[in-house]
Amino acid sequence: MCNDRKRPKRFLPSLSRTSIYKLLVPPIVRLARRLRPRLGPRVILLTPNLIVKYGAAEVYSEACAIDYISKNTSIPVPKLIAVFQTRDGTTYMLMARCPGVPLQGIIHQLTPTERQNAFAQLRGYVDELRALEPPQPGRVGSITYGPLEDDRILDGPCGPFENVSAFHRAMRLDAEIPSGHEECDTVISMQNRREYAIKCTHGDLSLRHVHYLDGKITGVIDWESAGWLPDYWEYTMTWDSFWDAPGLRANIPAFLDPFPEELEMEQARIRLFRGRN
């Protein structure tokens, strides 16, 4: 288990040794693809309280993140039941479904006081996450210091990186000043303007990924983009994650400290190097 606070490990032995799951889950998933509701491209609701997520390395990375967060914080995360890889390279993560519903879907039904309380709870969990000390100070990578899985950074897995400068350089495809492009030079200057603290980061903190029930935050899900990242990353990626609910972005400062200059920097980088607005 990833149970060492200082050094999150790369394996989940007590979860991956149960051969019965390897035997039963893959055929169940093949059948469930046709019969059961999907919560995402490779996420299936097997029963009202049981979810399976399957895919490549990013699923294992997410399992390690969930395991580490569950051991080192009070943040409510899905309970892992089994994590294993089959001979074809597919990783399966079987987990309990967090109770409640996504906060995004019911936020407008809450009273102002209920909404304030929900964001106060979320702020507490975010502060707890960001208070964790990086086991390898200065480095950027997944929770286990493996590759990062986020197409807002690069296509495919990337990293880990020895420092934030290397992370920034990779994201701008090694461009340096003078790049021949004024906006690119501005992005590079903004990236180089200060030192960055490394924070434990969810990386996709949309209200779709926050479950709520009876006045309480009951789950924070979808940790596949989690890692040790620069201090601004949670805010800028949360802003990006509200793509389907831009009207709710005004609520982000209720649970995350804003980084407005870095948001401008990241929006320009994504436009220049990821080809989208």
Question: Could you describe the 3D structure shown?
Answer:
This protein is an alpha+beta fold and 277 residues long. It has 2 domains: 13-96, Phosphorylase Kinase, domain 1 (2-Layer Sandwich); 101-273, Alpha-Beta Complex (Aminoglycoside 3'-phosphotransferase, Chain: A, domain 2). Helices cover 36% and strands 16% of the residues. The chain contains 9 helices and 10 strands. The protein has helices at 13-16, 19-35, 57-72, 103-106, 112-130, 164-171, 182-191, 233-241, 260-273; strands at residues 38-40, 43-47, 50-55, 80-85, 91-96, 101-102, 198-201, 210-213, 216-220, 227-230. The strands form 3 sheets. The protein has a 5-stranded antiparallel sheet with strand order 1-2-3-5-4, with helices on both faces. Strand 4 (80-85) and strand 5 (91-96) form a beta hairpin. Helix 7 packs across helix 9 (260-273) and helix 8 crosses helix 9. The protein is globular, with a radius of gyration of 19 Å. The protein starts with 12 loop residues before the first helix and ends with a helix. The mean pLDDT is 93.
